[in-house]
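Deliverable D4.2, example record:
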Amino acid sequence: METMARILVATGIFLLIMGGIMWLFSRVGGGFHLPGDIHYQRGNFTLYFPIATCIIISIILTMVLNLWRR
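Output generated by the structure prediction step:
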């Protein structure tokens, strides 16, 4: 039970930090777009699907979690 509590606390802290970073990027007008991200805009409709960004984040998180588990 103690291990699960530590994992939940670590996940909460990670989400808090990532949320703060994303909030700061949106306030500055930043954000990042990689070449593989799909951005479609027509009239009132805008679709942004960050495929390349999701893949990069997934690879980084996989490496970090694999290092953490060892």
